[in-house]
Design brief:
By secondary structure, the chain is an alpha/beta fold. Helices cover 44% and strands 18% of the residues. Strands 2-1-3-4-5 form a 5-stranded parallel β-sheet, with helices on both faces. A 3-stranded antiparallel β-sheet has the order 6-8-7.
C-alpha cells in the first residue's frame, strides 16, 4: 500500500461536494480521485477506480447511501467507507455502522471533526496492512485511537520535560504525513522549535512508536528522519 489515500466522494449536492473535496485535500495524505452524484454512479466508479476510501452521503437520487453501502458489502468490495449525512436518526446510523462504516459524521459538521476521523483512518491504514500479523497490544492501540472521545483513549505518563498536548500534536502530524520526516519538517509543520521537535521525535523513537531512518547526503551531516513503525 502506498502512503496516499485515494478517495471517492459520493455526494449529490455539487456545492457540498466541492467543499468536502477541499476539506479532504487539506490533509496531504488524501487525494480525491473521483466524485459521483448518486449511489449507482458511485458503485460504477468504485468498481473502476478501486479507491481506498469512500466518503458517502445518504440522501441521494437513484440509489441512496444505505443501499449503496449494502451493495458494497454484498459484492465484498475491498473499500472503507465514512458516512457524511444529514440523517441523524438512530436506526439509520446503527444500520450504517452494522454494515461496516468506519465513522459517521452528521451534517453540518466542523472541519476539525472531519480532520480527526481522517487522521484516525490514516493511522489505521498504516497499522493494518495485508499479510501482516499484529499483536494484541497493537490491536488495542488501533481500536482505542479510533474512539472519538478522549475519555476512552488510553492514558500514558509523559516524561518530565515533555508536554502531553505537544506530544499528541507531534504524533498526529506524523500520522497524516506520507513518508519519513526530519525534526525540521515536523517543527515547520506544527510551529514549534526544531530542538523541541527533535526531543519529541527521539522520545517516540525510544518508545518504539517511530522508526529512525538515517539519510546520508553528499555534503554535511546525515539527517535523522522518522516514520511510523510498521507492525
Amino acid at each position: 500500500m502506498t502512503n496516499e489515500i485515494r478517495v471517492l466522494l459520493i455526494e449529490d449536492d455539487p456545492m457540498v461536494q466541492e467543499v468536502n473535496k477541499q476539506f479532504i485535500e487539506r490533509l496531504p495524505a488524501f487525494k480525491v480521485v473521483d466524485t459521483a452524484s448518486n449511489g449507482l454512479e458511485g458503485l460504477d466508479k468504485i468498481r473502476q477506480s478501486k479507491p481506498d476510501l469512500v466518503i458517502l452521503d445518504i440522501f441521494m437520487p437513484s440509489l441512496n447511501g444505505v443501499d449503496t453501502l449494502y451493495q458494497i458489502r454484498k459484492e465484498q468490495i475491498d473499500v472503507d467507507v465514512i458516512i457524511i449525512s444529514a440523517a441523524n436518526d438512530q436506526k439509520t446510523i446503527r444500520k450504517m455502522m452494522q454494515n461496516g462504516a468506519f465513522d459517521y459524521l452528521i451534517k453540518p459538521f466542523k472541519f476539525d471533526r472531519l480532520k480527526h476521523t481522517l487522521e484516525q483512518y490514516f493511522a489505521f491504514r498504516m497499522e493494518v496492512e495485508p499479510d501482516h500479523q499484529i499483536s494484541q497490544t497493537q490491536l488495542d492501540r488501533i481500536l482505542f485511537q479510533n474512539k472519538t472521545h478522549s475519555e476512552t483513549s488510553p492514558k500514558h505518563d509523559v516524561p518530565k520535560g515533555l508536554n502531553g498536548a505537544t506530544l499528541e500534536q507531534v504524533t498526529k502530524f506524523i500520522k497524516t504525513q506520507p513518508g519519513s520526516l526530519s525534526a525540521e519538517e515536523v517543527a515547520d509543520g506544527i510551529g514549534i522549535a526544531r530542538v523541541t521537535a527533535r526531543r519529541y521525535l527521539e522520545y517516540l523513537h525510544g518508545e518504539e512508536v517511530l522508526q529512525l531512518d538515517v539519510q546520508y547526503g553528499s555534503i554535511g551531516r546525515p539527517v535523522n528522519r522518522y516514520r511510523l513503525k510498521k507492525p
